[in-house]
């Protein structure tokens, strides 16, 4: 169950700098791009139908999430793909990533999605244990050197 303190907010002029200042631990940088780089990537690839939000705990921005939201074309056409999940190093291991994922899964399901895809680059400290704990399974696909994962979303 998601606590009322963790929620998603649109990124606006009022919170953009605070969200861009969020950082992962040094050894995690190989696995997740910065918020600034993610926003630039979203702007460069409108055909991926990027959807992004800041993750908040109370009034504090603590993370960032970006999905390719049911794009009309491309390798993930008609599907929801978790493109980026970043929880600031000060707020990791507090359950915030799991709570943010619960919110995202509920939104995808409400949009009629039956699965959520993501991918990760393998290596020491990789995020696979986190995704496995949420129920993701490898699809057998590799996309740009990353292992593609699927979370099946049965209807409620």
TrEMBL record:
Instruction: Please report the stretch or stretches of sequence annotated as the N-acetyltransferase domain.
Output: 6-154
* Enzyme Commission number(s) of this protein: 2.3.-.-
Picking any one GO molecular function of the record gives: acyltransferase activity
Matching PROSITE patterns, A to Z? GNAT (PS51186)
What keyword terms does UniProt attach to this protein?
Answer: Acyltransferase, Transferase
Name the InterPro entries on file: Acyl_CoA_acyltransferase (IPR016181), GNAT_dom (IPR000182), Sper_AcTfrase_N (IPR027455)
Identify which top EC class this enzyme belongs to.
Answer: transferase
Gene3D superfamilies assigned to the protein according to its UniProt record, in alphabetical order? 3.40.630.30, The crystal structure of the spermine/spermidine acetyltransferase from enterococcus faecali
What name does this protein carry?
GNAT family N-acetyltransferase
- What species is given as this protein's source? Pseudonocardia aurantiaca
Its lineage reads: Bacteria, Bacillati, Actinomycetota, Actinomycetes, Pseudonocardiales
């Amino acid at each position: 169950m998601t606590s009322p303190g963790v929620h998603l907010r649109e990124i606006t002029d009022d919170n953009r700098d605070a969200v861009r200042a969020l950082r992962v631990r040094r050894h995690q940088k190989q696995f997740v791009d910065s918020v600034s780089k993610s926003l630039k990537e979203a702007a460069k690839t409108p055909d991926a139908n990027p959807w992004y939000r800041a993750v908040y705990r109370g009034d504090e921005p603590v993370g960032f999430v970006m999905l390719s939201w049911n794009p009309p074309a491309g390798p993930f056409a008609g599907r929801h793909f978790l493109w980026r999940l970043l929880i600031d190093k000060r707020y990791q291991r507090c359950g915030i990533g799991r709570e943010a994922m619960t919110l995202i899964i509920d939104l995808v399901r409400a949009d009629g999605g039956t699965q959520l895809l993501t991918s990760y680059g393998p290596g020491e400290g990789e995020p696979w244990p986190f995704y496995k704990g949420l129920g993701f399974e490898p699809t057998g696909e590799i996309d740009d050197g990353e292992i593609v994962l699927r979370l099946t979303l049965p209807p409620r």
